[in-house]
Amino acid sequence: MSEPIPGIDTAVAPSGPGCAECTTSDGWWFHLRRCAQCGHIGCCDSSPSQHASKHAESTGHQFIRSFEPGENWYYSYADETMYDGPDLAPPQHHPLTQSTPGPADLVPADWQRYLN
Question: Which of 17, 53, 81, 103 is the 20 to 30 A CA-CA neighbour of 37?
């Protein structure tokens, strides 16, 4: 059995299927990232609002994991390095029926021009 990694809690479920802040403000995202410590789902740094990075900065939670289907990488904000890591509590990614970018009804037709 492997040792726990400080800052990664494999028992915590994701906060929801989409970016927590964008969902409450009618925003949209490009890709989603999951806080490996508390499960917060935020939008990636290419998204207009960059909520995953803002969450890490405000909480000190250093590890994120992709919340995209087929991706299982971790990233550490502390040392700006990619990592492999353990599976987290399900689900491992947003619903397959959810659009990328999303949510579909809020993504502008010219969404590419708003990416960072």
Answer: 103
